[in-house]
Amino acid sequence: MRAEGSAAERRRVTELRGRTAETLALIALLLKGYRPLGSRFRAAWGEIDLIVRRGATIAFVEVKARSTLAAAQGAIDARKVARFSRAVRVWISRHPNTDATTFRADAVFVSPWAWPRHLADAFPIR
Predict the structure, then answer these.
(1) Could you give the CA distance from residue 34 to residue 54 in angstroms, rounded to a whole number?
(2) How high is the pLDDT of residue 47?
(3) 26 in Cβ contact with 118 (< 8 Å)
(4) pLDDT tens digit string along 56-110?
(5) Pairing of strands 102-110, 57-65
(6) What is the C-alpha separation between 97 and 88, in angstroms, rounded?
(7) Which of 8, 23, 39, 60 counts the highest number of beta carbons within 10 A?
(8) Which residues pair with 110 in a beta bridge?
(9) Which helix (H) or strand (E) holds 8?
(10) How far is 18 from 107, CA to CA, in rounded Å?
(11) pLDDT tens digit string along 36-70?
(12) Residue 88 · residue 101 · CB < 8 Å
């Protein structure tokens, strides 16, 4: 019984850490002139943490929080890109009025005691 409690506690702490990182990432993007369109968009086999717009560009943002910025940058692998890309395709299909829009996959890396690092066009949308 104790193992279940500790697993549930770890999930809760991880969820809280993720939501905090997404909030910090959104604040950093707002200060750069982006406006939010959505967050935590879920589709079959994928999720987009943040969806923001600046001008004619919509950025689908993956937020990674780790103990260091380098570890956060290394946390996006090919499997993650594939899942992210599937969710992006679903989002675009549900928003047909975006024909004249440029789409981009960005990343924001968050670590303790450092300002979030925004990387525009971090990886291709496949």
Answers:
(1) 5
(2) 93
(3) no
(4) 999 999 999 998 888 888 888 999 999 999 999 999 999 988 877 899 999 999 9
(5) parallel
(6) 15
(7) 60
(8) 65
(9) helix 2-31
(10) 14
(11) 999 999 998 889 999 999 999 999 999 999 988 88
(12) no
